[in-house]
Amino acid sequence: MSLVRTLGLLRLSLPLAVWALHFVAVYSLQGLACARALWRAPWAGLEAMTWVLWGLTAVALAVIIASGVPAYRAWRALRADPDGRADTVRQRFLFALAAQCALIATIGVVFTAVPVALLPTCA
Amino acid sequence: MSDLRPDYTLPTPGDHLRHTDRIAALERIWANGRGLVGQLTAVNHTTIALRFIVTGLCFLLIGGMLSMFIRLQLAWPGLDVLDPERYAQFVTMHGTTMMFLFAVPIMEGFAMYLIPKMLGTRDLPFPRLSAFGWWCYLFGGLFLYSSFLFGSVPDGGWFMYTPLTDSTYSPGKGADFWLIGVTFAEIAAVTAAVELIVAILITRAPGMDLTRMPLFAWAILVTAFMIAFGFPPLILASLLLEIQRAFDFAFFEVARGGDPLLWQHLFWLFGHPEVYIIFLPAAGVVSTLVPTFARRPIVGYTWIVLALIATGFLSFGLWVHHMFAVGIPLLALAFFSAASMAVAIPTGIQVFAWIATLWAGKPWLRVPMLHIIGFFITFVCGGLTGVMLAFVPFDWQAHDTHFVVAHLHYVLIGGMMFPMFAGLYYWLPLASGRMPSESLSRSAFWLVFIGFNLTFLPMHITGLVGMPRRVDSYAMELGVHWLNLVSTAAGFVLAVGIIAILVDVALCFVLGRRNDENPWQAPTLEWALPHPAPKYNFASIPEVSDRDPLWREPGLVDATRRTDGLLADAHGGWRWILGTSIQSAQPEQAIRLSNSTWYPLLCALCIAVLLAGFITSQYWLSVLMLVPLIGLFLRWLWTVNGRDAPLEIEVKPGLWLPTQAAAKNAPGWWALVGTLLIDGSLFASLVYAYFYLWLHAPAWPAGGATFTAPAPAAAALAALLLAGIAAWRASAAVRATHTQRAVGWHVLAVVAGVAFLALQLPTIADAVGAPQRHAYGSVVWTLAGFHALHVAVAALVGGFVALRIARGHVDAARPLETRIATGFWHYVVAQGAIAWAVLHLFPRFA
After folding, report:
1. Which domains does chain B carry?
2. How far is B341 from chain A (nearest CA, A)?
3. Over 90: is that where the pLDDT of A47 sits?
4. Does residue A3 fall inside a structural domain?
């Protein structure tokens, strides 16, 4: 909890920024795989590119969760101990928002990853 | 002066006199000049914003008239109202007008009018920039429509797909009118974005911290950031296509290594966020009106803020769903299909929050609320057909049919026009001091609602049956002629309804019943103002302690009209607003604004002449116009804040605050940050174009180009880094009060920048040759030229600041301008380092 004491607008958007980076990375790599045959060789039963895309997804989810869970905990702590000061209210609001952003970003990344599981890299 | 109201706040005769004196001073300082000159030089946000709204409504009428012709032509198969050529022109101009000249600018107008009033301040932080934006918008729109006079109306569709719009297939000037006119008008969008970001971040009333910010302000903040990232791809695409058309470059031409799909990517990279750029302000309007008419605070404030932020991000992952049919690999389509469905989640959150608020409250069905209900029904239907179209197989079926036309009108008219009309009626008493007619306004709503649904509901069927869009007729055998006749008839009902609303609004200013006190019992700060709102908005800047200030703080209205609060005293006869901290909104600085001035109009006029010279290929005229343009901009900057401005002022008895030249969070600094976001997005789009062309090229470098010579390239990079270091030392010298040294460092930065250009450009010329040979040369030269332009601007800014330091306008106590110059230099060096790596290193490893 004490890890994240104050939270600004920039930090707040981190999970969604990670979603955006993941989206761009996955889309670009897929483009390179199809246009330039990058990492198309099979590796442990799947195309190497598929593993890379899965790996990126895992990293993105890890970062999002690592930013969302402390925010959620900080929000719970502030909710349990309200002192009514404007600063506290604002921090609670920002932590709630950060946790919710992480939730939406998680859904977004999972949505993007589902096609990787269902479709071949280039079709 | 004539507007003075009887004073009821201060009892004793002596105080009364002081109060009326202070009010009279505020009236005088914030008034526009007299007569026509006063109108031409006005910069006040109320005046400029109302102009945006009125101009937008005029373009709505013009664009609507074009659509009436389109509907007449489609009323029955084989009609001859418009020949195919005219039909294509009208369809193009209808879409272009509604998107670029109506929807975006009018929402900017609403934001510019409401944001200062809602946030409890007197004006936007850059009034001249707002005025400049409006002139650019007006001239850009007139520029586009002047194509009718010259008989070369754009006809490539509002999306201007290449190769249809390149010089081979669109040889006239039509496409040029579109590219130049629309880009000219878009200046207003990007300047408004910077203006609104800064206004919302640092000019909120004291106490209005992030948790108490009105949802409309949140919506506008997110929208402004989306404009900053979303508009540059289109601006870049327009520049590239215009360069190709004017100078025979090869970005989109297959024979010389270009790719027409690059246009579509860049266009929709703008075009999809654009839909949300239009929708989010409208959602902000809905979030403002729903609590007022439900007569209770909004349910799920945090969730709505989340939805706005999440939509802002997710909407950038949808653009390829406009390109499902162009032959992109299936997995890539699936990414965009998934994101298109994901974006329904935040939108759904907002809809449920609004429904919950109405459910928990005691709804009051006044005219604005009728339009909100129209919005709910229409927008939800449009959203659902949007989810249908997000499915790739369904999209392939419905692609390019009237189903898509139906969908997009449900989303845009439902998601933007109904909330816009709701907002128009809602804030009308604030702007006019009068109430709209209850009977005419209700009839007009029903005409619009019924007319709209009868026009566009049948198009779902005609589209699914197979009626193509963008074509001037259809086969009788399709059996959709009766449905089309219904659409046409209903289209006229819709038009009559819209005209009735506009007549109602206009009449209200003359005939409406007078009302000067918060007619809807609304909770937000703008309703603390007398109606109609005075030009200075608040006599004393309010201090708020709640999200719904007018509901919770009964004394607030009186406090804002007395002249014993923040900034009630007119210091030195200048226009002052208060600057507060970003998160907690504590008073931090006093910001001195410009009075009425000619600069915005003159600068916009210079640009208009410059562009007229360009479109007629009189390039000497364009180059010549740069001289007055740059001169005017420099003069504009020179008159901001100099040594005559106080370093601090007493904003209320006992509270002294620094003025912006001395403040850390100065508006100029944040404007630089906002501008660099826009410019960075423009640069990123160009780098994207480079790699996109590389991706499908068999060889790189291509078109006979070779690698650049390493030694001069390395020397160029060293010169650029030197410029960055010199700029950094210049600011340090200013802080250490070494004036001479600061000037010297700034001059050295300029010299190093010029040396960089002298080394870099010949190196590229030797290796690449003419830009017309191949798309490789085209994109390399454009990237190098783009950065060279930045170096030139940085040199101009650096030289300007050196002069300001020498004249004593910038010093250790007023370091803002040198901070800005150094910040810009560092950005230019960073951009140059990336461009350098792309231009000189990447081809060696590609």
Report:
1. 35-514 (1.20.210.10), 697-845 (1.20.120.80)
2. 9
3. no
4. no
